[in-house]
Structures are given as structure tokens and as C-alpha cells.
Design goal:
The protein is mainly alpha-helical and about 200 residues long. Helices cover about 60% and strands about 0% of the residues. Helix 5 (about 85-105) packs across helix 6 (about 115-140) and helix 5 (about 85-105) packs across helix 8.
Length: about 200
């Protein structure tokens, strides 16, 4: 199984955690036309992506996103696989993170501590929750379904960052072999196996 197939399989397992945009990108095998207009991200923004991914999946008893090289994977995916509208949303989200870090802690996102980055990211999450709650309350049932569909097709910055971080991590060697249970040569097929308490999920 190659990495592209693994990405699609992980996306299926994640179900509703993956936006329609990302599912579309994976099903089309990243064959969307690429605009060759120079670098999408500055060097500083690529560093922000790396630290953002490591904030989403930090090192615990297993290595975090940075150790798995997830930052460059996220940057590559956004640049090479997503439409221009989504790219602009992602770049704007990075700029917003930087502004929040400087406003709250008077320093760049890449210069503040992991705990401070978590605070900045929680601000983003809280505002998204408030916005979603407001939209659900304001709209009638018919319009609500339409709005949810539009949101799934056009993911917000944090949703996109989170799903790409998860995709990159759990399809990396570090994620598959250390965060999951990896069996390079599987034995018999068992479609229903009980998992023990605390057992890691199986790698694909």
C-alpha cells in the first residue's frame, strides 16, 4: 500500500472529522491544477505550521507531530492539492495565529512556549464554537442544512489544519509504528477483534 492509499484509508476511518474538500482532494489523487506563482508560504509561515501541528499532536509517551515531520507534509498538501480559495483561507489563518500570539503574549507564535500556543489555539477554537452556535440558532431548519453542507465543503482554517495534521501523523512511520500498533506482515483476517483497555489502534 502506498502513502496515497493510506491517506485515503485514514480519511475514511476518520469519517466526519474530514471535510468534503479534503476527501475530494484525496479521491482525485492530488491531480488538481497547480498555480505556479511562487512559494505559497514564507519560511516563517512554514515554521508556524510545524509548531501548530506539534500543538495539535504534542509529544507525550509517543513522539509528536514535529518528530513525524508533519509540518512539511501539511504545507505540501495545502500548496499542491487544494484550490486557491482554500489556500487563501489557510494563509489567512496563519496570519491570524501570528496576530493573536503577538497580541496575547507580545511575541511570535513560533517564539512562545507550547503552553502559550495552546492558549492561542484555544482562542481560535472557542470563537469557532461561538460562531457555529450563533449560526445554528439564527437559521431556520432548511437553511441550516445548507449552511452545514457549505461549511463541510469549505473547511475553516483550524479544521483543515487539524485534519491534515492527523492525516500526516497517522500515515507517517512514527505515527504508524509508535502511536499505533503496526504489523508489517499481517496474519489471518479477523473482522471483529475486541481491543484491550488502553490498547493502541491498529495502523493501516
Amino acid at each position: 500500500m502506498n502513502r496515497r492509499d493510506a491517506l485515503r484509508n485514514i480519511a475514511v476511518l476518520m469519517g466526519s472529522a474530514i471535510s468534503a474538500t479534503t476527501l475530494s482532494v484525496l479521491s482525485e489523487s492530488c491531480n488538481q491544477p497547480i498555480k505556479k506563482n511562487g512559494a505559497l508560504f514564507s519560511a516563517e509561515q512554514e515554521d508556524i505550521i510545524t509548531e501548530l501541528a506539534d500543538t495539535i499532536i504534542p509529544a507525550t509517551s509517543t513522539p509528536g507531530a514535529k518528530a513525524a515531520g508533519v509540518g512539511p507534509f501539511v504545507a505540501m498538501m495545502v500548496k499542491e492539492c487544494y484550490p486557491e480559495e482554500v489556500q487563501k483561507t489557510f494563509v489567512a489563518g496563519l496570519d491570524d495565529l501570528e496576530k493573536r500570539a503577538k497580541s496575547t503574549f507580545s511575541n511570535s507564535f513560533i517564539a512562545i512556549s507550547p503552553a502559550q500556543r495552546a492558549v492561542v489555539l484555544q482562542q481560535v477554537v472557542d470563537e469557532l464554537k461561538q460562531k457555529k452556535a450563533h449560526e445554528q440558532k439564527a437559521q431556520q431548519t432548511g437553511g441550516k442544512k445548507s449552511a452545514q453542507t457549505a461549511a463541510k465543503k469549505n473547511p475553516n482554517f483550524f479544521q483543515l489544519a487539524k485534519e491534515l495534521t492527523m492525516l500526516g501523523y497517522f500515515t507517517s512511520e512514527v505515527g504508524a509504528k509508535q502511536a499505533l500498533v503496526y504489523m508489517p506482515i499481517p496474519g489471518k483476517y479477523d473482522g471483529c477483534t475486541d481491543m484491550k483497555p488502553g490498547q493502541k489502534a491498529w495502523a493501516l
